[in-house]
């Protein structure tokens, strides 16, 4: 059952700049939905419209039965936003921050404390609530931010860059907490991240947006399977060697990447490697490097957009959340 449905959702700036172009997506209740896109693709504009911060130029969306245009206040009550920037007050204790957020949403104090107690247990922060936030580690701050977006018991959580700046070990712990939140609370999560392995690990489904349109969608496994094979990148010594590599017939696709690098797309690198090595030796090609990549979301993203994921402008989600809080008052 879909909890979010967009119907020709469109945003046009000025006379002719189409940021989001007749977007139609359905997000199922209780799933983690990864939304990816390069800078300027329309991802942030889409989220701003879904969170009622930005009014569409055309079309609409329905979240938990509420239209984002006609019932914007009702929408704000059922969604939570956790931005990539840290928004909790360092000069307040953990519990004081959470109680302050609960008051933004007019949650009765007794219910707020009960909800906070459960959330704190989920993310292992029981012993930190009476400590000032400035004493928290980076991972603790991120966990506090996560549950700050849940104190009013939203049905949909917009989660932007949840592990930005964390080390690998702390990041994996944060993944576990996000999964526990989804499992225990049944909340639907819209996830955006520049760590594509994070989106792969957490998302039930992923959509890639570019030029305001969804250009690919499916489960992570389906998207990776769409690449139809592995990628072998070979670095050679000369342009003459590049020309020889471009004549290799065992690949489904051969491309000159420049810089004496050639990319081969093959059905299976494991099966193809012996034939490839024989060709290199028999052709007298001087190879300085070989890199084999199995299908990944990074490759999927590059394949469909022609670009690599780059950092978004900082502070965008923070300003969005602060505006939402003002609108709720």
Automatic annotation (TrEMBL):
Keyword Hydrolase included in the entry's annotation: no
Q: Any idea where this protein resides? A: Cell membrane
User: Which GO molecular function annotations are given, in alphabetical order?
Assistant: ATP binding; ATP hydrolysis activity
Xref: InterPro entries: AAA+_ATPase, ABC_transporter-like_ATP-bd, ABC_transporter-like_CS, DrrA, DrrA1/2-like_C, P-loop_NTPase
Q: Which UniProt keywords apply?
A: ATP-binding, Nucleotide-binding, Transport
Return the GO cellular component terms, semicolon-separated: plasma membrane
What main location does UniProt list?
A: membrane
Q: Does the keyword ATP-binding apply?
A: yes
Outline the extent of the ABC transporter domain: 4-236
What is one Gene Ontology biological process annotated in the Swiss-Prot or TrEMBL record?
daunorubicin transport
Q: How does it sit in the membrane?
A: Peripheral membrane protein
**Xref: Gene3D superfamilies:** P-loop containing nucleotide triphosphate hydrolases
Instruction: Fetch the Pfam families from UniProt.
Output: ABC_tran (PF00005), DrrA1-3_C (PF13732)
Family that this chain belongs to: Belongs to the ABC transporter superfamily. Drug exporter-1 (DrugE1) (TC 3.A.1.105) family.
Among NCBIfam families, the record links this protein to: drrA
Q: In its UniProt entry, what is this protein called? A: Daunorubicin resistance protein DrrA family ABC transporter ATP-binding protein
């Amino acid at each position: 059952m879909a909890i979010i449905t967009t119907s020709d959702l469109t945003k046009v700036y000025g006379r002719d700049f189409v940021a989001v172009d007749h977007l139609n997506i359905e997000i199922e209740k209780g799933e983690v939905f990864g939304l990816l896109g390069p800078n300027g693709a329309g991802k942030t504009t889409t989220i701003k419209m879904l969170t009622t911060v930005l009014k569409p130029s055309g079309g609409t969306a329905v979240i938990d039965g509420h239209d984002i245009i006609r019932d914007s206040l009702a929408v704000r009550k059922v969604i939570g936003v956790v931005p990539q920037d840290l928004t909790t007050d360092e000069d307040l204790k953990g519990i004081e921050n959470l109680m302050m957020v609960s008051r933004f949403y007019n949650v009765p104090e007794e219910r707020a404390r009960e909800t906070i107690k459960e959330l704190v247990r989920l993310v292992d922060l029981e012993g930190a609530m009476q400590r000032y936030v400035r004493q928290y580690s980076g991972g603790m701050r991120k966990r506090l931010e996560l549950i700050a977006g849940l104190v009013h018991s939203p049905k949909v959580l917009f989660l932007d860059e949840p592990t930005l700046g964390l080390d690998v070990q702390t990041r994996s712990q944060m993944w576990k907490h996000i999964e526990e939140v989804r499992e225990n609370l049944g909340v639907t999560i819209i996830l955006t991240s520049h760590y594509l392995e994070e989106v792969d690990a957490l998302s039930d489904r992923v959509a890639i947006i570019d030029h305001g349109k969804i250009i690919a969608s499916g489960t992570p496994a389906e998207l990776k399977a769409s690449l139809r094979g592995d990628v072998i990148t070979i670095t050679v010594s000369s342009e003459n060697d590049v020309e020889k590599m471009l004549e290799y017939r065992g690949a489904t696709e051969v491309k000159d990447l420049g810089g004496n690098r050639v990319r081969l797309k093959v059905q299976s690198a494991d099966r193809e490697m012996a034939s490839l090595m024989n060709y290199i030796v028999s052709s007298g090609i001087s190879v300085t490097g070989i890199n084999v990549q199995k299908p990944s979301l990074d490759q999927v993203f590059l394949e469909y957009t022609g670009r690599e994921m780059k950092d978004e402008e900082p502070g965008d989600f923070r300003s969005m959340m602060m505006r939402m809080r003002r609108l709720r008052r």
